[in-house]
Amino acid sequence: MIYKNHKQKIELIKSGKISLKQNVADFLLNIKKNEHLNAFNFVFEDSASEVDLIERKIKTGKHGKLAGMVIAVKDVISIKSKPLTCSSNILIGFEAVYNATVVEKLLQENAILIGKTNCDEFAMGSSNENSAFGKVLNPVNNDYVPGGSSGGSAAAVAANLCDAALGTDTGGSIRQPAAFCGVYGLKPTYGRVSRYGLTAFASSFDTIGPFAKNIDDIALILETISGNDNFDSTFVNSEIHSFSEKISSERKFKIGLPKEYFSDGLDDEIRKIIFEHVEILKNAGNEVTEISLPHTEFAIATYYILTTAEASANLSRFDGAHYGLRSKNASNIDEMYKFSRTEGFGEEVKRRIMLGTYVLSSGYYDAYYKKAQKVRSLIKSDFDNAFKEVDIILTPTTPTAAFKIGEKSENPLEMYLSDIYTTSANLAGIPAINVPIGFNKIGLPIGMQLLSKQFDELSLLQLANILSTN
Question: Which one of 86, 271, 295, 317 is most buried, counting C-beta atoms within 10 A?
Fold first, then answer.
């Protein structure tokens, strides 16, 4: 049975029109039917074990806010006693020994976890072609990529393999695949959602956020996974709104369109449909004005210097000694490190480790890493100044719709430019959301990005809700 959001699903279960057990069974069957998409690394066939108890809780009114919501989790997030591979050969066979904080919060609210989704290895990629488990296909058109790095999560939601999914966003890895697959995807403010239990790529950039086919479920999941956590030193103890209860506000917004995001390089069809939605917002009484984010042109270079530097440090723990793959070809400890990493890491991960090691090396640290940190501060200042004038910044999510599988595999720089509109939010630590707004002439989804000041996810959700109802 079709339901528009989780609230309606709960009502249908209460009335007996939906059997939660059958609902979970249908999802598992649909995953089986769509194995060709390769959206999942691992499917939890035992996910139905708690269904009867959760259904009883729903019918007696003693259930958590996510009771019966079937959720997939990106395979970089820890679920106790389940595989945690980060889609890498170096972690094949490894099982997590504890739950990530976000997983604990989902389970406390009676969510059902159905599996771990495929992703670019260690969340490094923009197409989900860099996985030890193979590439993920876009469910809208199987000849195209689903985006990355959280491509499996986006594809699973778009293909109705689950109600919602968790992904991670270091430079656009939730918003870009959400745009390519035609679903909602939210990157929260850095520090709102605990990173405890997330395998680190770039620790000052990484965030965990939700995918869903409707804005109501995005709001509900965000308020569930937000909140205090003593295990994450970067967590910021901010106000947690009842987002799901407040998104229907009739508030009017001051919206900024940064001229740097609408220059050459933006696909004409994306430009056209975005400005059609801008007109809808204007006609609804919202104020729209052009703004400038003058350091935008430096975002990609700054992002790839800083994130690769952090990756080179974070991934040094995968050495063949403590856990994961240990090469059988080594005869001494130096060879153990060298061969284990050579055999375990994929090409893109090796590339980023080498780049990061280079920019941190003696003689290059000041020229690259230190300078990039200064530019990061300038980019953040651009957003701080802009939010003194406007409530929301509206941009494209991606410069093009999804590209064909293999189209950019031989050109890393061209692949990196897929994130040209998304990396700035991670550099500045602000929240951003992809809103699906239509399709191009060959039927591929188009997304629009909304950004707000730190910890103002409520404004994003409210404006996204206005767009969803027009």
Answer: 86
Active site residue 149: yes
What distances in angstroms separate CA 245 from CA 65, 223, 449, 463, one per listed residue?
12, 10, 22, 14
Burial 450-459 (b: 16+ CB within 10 A, else e): bbbbbbbbbb
Chain centre distance of CA 66: 19
Q: Which of 333, 249, 240, 322 is nearest to 284 (CA)?
A: 249
Output 98-101 pairs: Cβ under 8 A, ≥24 positions apart.
98/197, 99/197, 100/194, 100/196, 100/197, 100/198, 100/208, 101/194, 101/196, 101/197, 101/225, 101/229, 101/231, 101/232
Measure the CA–CA gap between 207 and 234, rounded to whole angstroms. Answer: 11
pTM of the model: 0.96
Pick the catalytic residue: 9, 74, 213, 408? Answer: 74
- Range from 175-184, 316-325, 427-436 carrying the lowest mean pLDDT: 316-325
Active-site choice (126, 150, 173, 418): 173
Which sequence spans correspond to the domains of the chain?
A: 6-246
Whether the pLDDT of residue 203 is over 70: the answer is: yes
- 74 in active site: yes
Report the alpha-carbon angle 107-112-115, nearest 5.
110
Over the stretch 144-170, which tens digit does the pLDDT of each residue have? 999 999 999 999 999 999 999 999 999
> CATH says 6-246 is which class?
alpha beta
- The enclosing H or E element of 224 equals helix 215-225
